[in-house]
Amino acid sequence: MRGPLGAVIGRYTSSDGSVANDGIIKHNRKCRDITFLVIFIAFWVSMIVNSSFGFNQGNPLRLTYGLDYEGNVCGSKHRHRDLTQLELRYWVNPNQVYESGLKDGELKLANARTVCLLDCPAPSDDTLNWVCDYPDGEIRLKMNDWIDRNYDYFEFLTPEMRNSSLQLQGPCYPVIFPSVNVYWSCQYIARASNSSLRHWQQMGGVNIQEDMIIDKSIRRSMNSRASVLKRYVADIGKSWPVLIVCGGLVPLFLSIIWLLLIRHFVAAMPWITVVLFNMLLISVTIFYYLKAGWIGNDAVTPIIGEHDPYFHVYGRELTHVRGIAILMTFISIVAILTSIAIIRRILMATSVLKVAAKVIGEVQALIIFPAIPFAMLAIFYMFWISAALHLFSSGQVVQNNCNNTNCCAYDLVLKKVNCDRCCGYSIRYTPHITIAIFFHLFGCYWATQFFIASSATVIAGSVASYYWAQGEASPEIPFLPVFASMKRLARYNLGSVALGSLIVSFVESVRFILEAIRRRTKVSGATPDHWFWRMAHYTSRGCLKSVEWTIKSVNRNAYIMIAITGKSFCKSSAIATELIMSNILRIGKVNVIGDVILFLGKLCVSLFSALFGFLMLDSHKYRTSHNKVSSPLLPVLACWALGYIVATLFFAVVEMSIDTIILSFCQDSEDNQGNAQHAPPLLLETLDSNQEEEVQRLTH
To answer: Transmembrane stretches, by residue range (predicted)?
Structure first.
């Protein structure tokens, strides 16, 4: 049977029976769970190797810009061509675009000839405009001169070149259709210019198709899942100043302010938190309604720059924003009803928070301590996001195989029409890149959980010192207890923290994989029809979510006992669980209500970060030119997630203070026949009143 821990976490007795005076929580410790610390270090080495592959092979510009007929990425500098200014991809041959849209057409849009331009060309009312290939061979023009001439050197062509151009085989192609900049690709508007078409026909050009298919072909390509995913990932790279401000600095400032308010205005904070949470949730929902186009005229649009206001282009991003807007409406309604339901319990939360506020007042270093793991996480996230962008774009540019299609084009170097190597280029992703990306995502989650767990363990050690010193004199608390707790963590318990964070990460990863499989089977129509299989499917999802929540709760209490006892993770989990189950009637409701208020506080910080992110992304910088984000959805979600993580680091000061004091109270009561000797009077009053309510409820 487990013996009392009072001697461990207060003064302890040495082997000869005398009382030692070496301080609080400084009993015989040793390194625990070393194997998992070695695994964690090896994992970090693997993360660095994995990221170096991305930095070596990837180019984030591929996520935004298309490829030209030479396989170059628009908007970037290459060995033989500087395309830095030329960000827009333009399909020069309208008949190839038309053929790619036919159901039985052999030519794919990826094999249609494209060039990189500064802006989308427009047909002329007086003459016929041309867009020619990059100057090469006998066309002795510099790239800047080619740009200044609006990409037109038709007058310099030889008769042979002119004849091939009239056959839509280049090197020059007519501008018959107007086009608009849609996500850095010039999408045709299926309204041919009558003047340009007449000039083309008078010159003896081949027949050009004018069907609506020419519009839909490019639109279908731009709205494919792969294209939308690339744009979403690219949005993260473009909005990095927003992530720094709204995902880092804003939640840092708000979290510190919240801790200070808890310290000085604890009675009002639960009420302020609940009201502010609902106001922020409604505000974010309204912003989604604005971007969905249901309020005002500021809907998400795929068109970049000035365009005809009567011309509209559909983008899947708008559908996603509208879906989130509906989801946020449902969440807001549930949140308001839940807030009304817990009003009677807010007073109980106030009593518990007062105890935590007293701890913060005594150990004031706790307020600024989370800035240390915050700085570490900030450095990690900057490295991780940069590596993620490179990994997502680390495919290999290869030329397509299109031998059975007619893609012939005039080669200025060979001085003839070439039909052998005229296929387009695409980015090919190998299976090991997919594995590298998932490995990178798992590494992010594990590292985040590790830093959060380490911070929680340090806070628990500091608060435990405070609690068990109250039976003696206040100077018994070690000088700078936060740094003393950090030293114990770094010297003895990093392996235990690595194990706890790994368990949470593993369970969350399994749940993510199962959810991804469920979505894929739902899309493919393979969802089980029999009621038994559907019940099993939803039951397994619910069970896995419950297991995840339980593990996170057990882990938090385990970190407290690790900080106090120095035991291994599994042993500390068993001790914490036994203490809680022995006192569940006395502490259960108090702990739950306190956690609810703190959870709402974290959501307040993260929602304010998301709201501020919306405001920054709504500025001119992110609505036009090359910095335009395709949708505010993912950057705002990233701001919300980062804000929540930062808030978790700082709110852990209050959260872990409450949990540590309650666990210490449980052990204190057990060591002293149910009469805690070190508990603050306010905590005793709160717990006793809670126990009386439970007894009355069970009696009736």
So the answer is: 34-55, 240-261, 268-290, 324-343, 363-384, 489-514, 596-617, 633-654
Residues 6+ apart with CB under 8 A from 29: 488, 491, 492, 566
Read off the pTM: 0.84
- Whole-Å CA distances, 324 to 229, 331, 334, 632: 16, 10, 15, 11
Q: How many CB atoms lie within 10 A of CB 699?
A: 6
* Number of continuous H segments (helices) and E segments (strands) in the chain: 23, 10
Burial group, residue 167, by CB count within 10 angstroms (0-12, 13-18, 19+)? middle
CA-to-CA distance for 118 and 146, rounded, in angstroms? 11
d(CA 312, CA 208): 24
Q: What is the DSSP letter of 253?
A: H
Distance, CA of 635 to CA of 630 (rounded, Å)? 10
Query: Residue 641: is it exposed, middle or buried by C-beta count within 10 angstroms (0-12/13-18/19+)?
Result: middle
- Residues for the chain: how many in total? 700
Eight-class DSSP state of 189: P
Tokens of 635: 């950057």
Q: What is the pLDDT of residue 22?
A: 38
User: 320: burial class by Cβ within 10 Å (0-12, 13-18, 19+)?
Assistant: middle
By the 8 A CB rule, do 63 and 184 touch? no
Give the burial class of 589: count Cβ atoms within 10 A of its Cβ; 0-12 exposed, 13-18 middle, 19 or more buried: middle
Q: How far is CA 134 from CA 72, 116, 381, in A?
A: 12, 9, 40
Cα atoms in the Cβ-side hemisphere of radius 13 Å centred on 163: 5
- Cα 140 from Cα 143, distance rounded (Å): 10
Tell me which residue of 592, 594, 571, 586 sits closest to 674, measured CA to CA.
Answer: 586
CB-based contacts of 242: which residues, under 8 Å, 6+ apart?
613, 616, 617, 622, 635, 639
Q: How far is CA 360 from CA 275, 377, 466, 644, in A?
A: 24, 23, 10, 21
Q: H-helix or E-strand containing 547?
A: helix 531-565
**Residues 205, 211, 216, 221, Cα dihedral to 10°:** -30
Q: Where are the alpha helices (DSSP H) in 203-342?
A: 213-222, 225-238, 240-244, 250-264, 269-292, 316-341
Token pair belonging to 429: 């992703």
Higher pLDDT among residues 16 and 245, named by residue: 245
What phi and psi values does residue 14 have, to the nearest 5 degrees?
A: -80, 180
Is the backbone peptide bond immediately before 373 cis, with ω within 30 degrees of 0?
A: no
DSSP string, 422-485: ---EEEE--HHHHHHHHHHHHHHHHHHHHHHHHHHHHHHHHHHHHHHHTTS-GGGSPSSHHHHH
Interval 424-473: pLDDT, tens: 888 888 888 889 999 999 999 999 999 999 999 999 888 887 777 764 43
Q: How far apart are CA 201 and CA 166, in angstroms?
A: 9
